[in-house]
């Protein structure tokens, strides 16, 4: 929305400003661009080649596991946890958010929803 409004202002006011101050109008475009470049260079961290977990940790969020850069033991623990989660998904006991229990047999499927209070 802000970019749209800025574009609209420049399109409407640009010809008038260019007529009154001629070539100096380009400073209206150059100066904010310069400050934006400085801001991005110093304030926005590099995220190229980083995992989502590392990026979340860099922005202060708690991360359950750091798979990249993890030791072999930690990777093995993660793989075991994934296998256990897949077993639960296949048996239909508990879904991912833990709120719904699905009971299935050969003849009929019943879904029971548990609400957290």
Can you walk through the features of this model?
This protein has 117 residues and is mainly α. It has a domain at 2-44. The chain is 56% helix and 9% strand. It is built from four helices and two strands. It has a two-stranded antiparallel ribbon with strand order 1-2. β1 (100-104) and β2 (109-113) form a beta hairpin. The longest helix is centred in the first third of the chain and has 20 residues, at 2-21. The protein starts with a helix and ends with a strand. Residues 99-115 have low confidence and may be disordered.
Write the SSE topology.
Layout: H1 2-21, H2 26-43, H3 52-58, H4 72-91, E1 100-104, E2 109-113
Antiparallel strand pairs: 1-2
GO molecular function: carbohydrate:proton symporter activity
Membrane topology: Multi-pass membrane protein
Pfam families: Sugar_tr (PF00083)
């Amino acid at each position: 929305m802000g970019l749209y409004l800025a574009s609209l202002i420049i399109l409407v006011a640009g010809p008038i400003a260019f007529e009154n101050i001629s070539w100096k109008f380009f400073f209206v475009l150059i100066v904010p661009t310069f400050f934006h470049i400085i801001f991005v260079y110093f304030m926005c961290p590099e995220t190229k080649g980083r995992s989502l977990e590392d990026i979340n940790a860099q922005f202060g969020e708690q991360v359950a596991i750091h798979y990249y850069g993890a030791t072999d033991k930690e990777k093995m623990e993660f793989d075991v946890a994934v296998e256990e989660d897949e077993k639960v998904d296949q048996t239909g006991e508990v879904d991912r958010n833990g709120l719904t229990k699905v009971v299935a047999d050969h003849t009929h499927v019943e879904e029971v929803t548990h609400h957290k209070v």
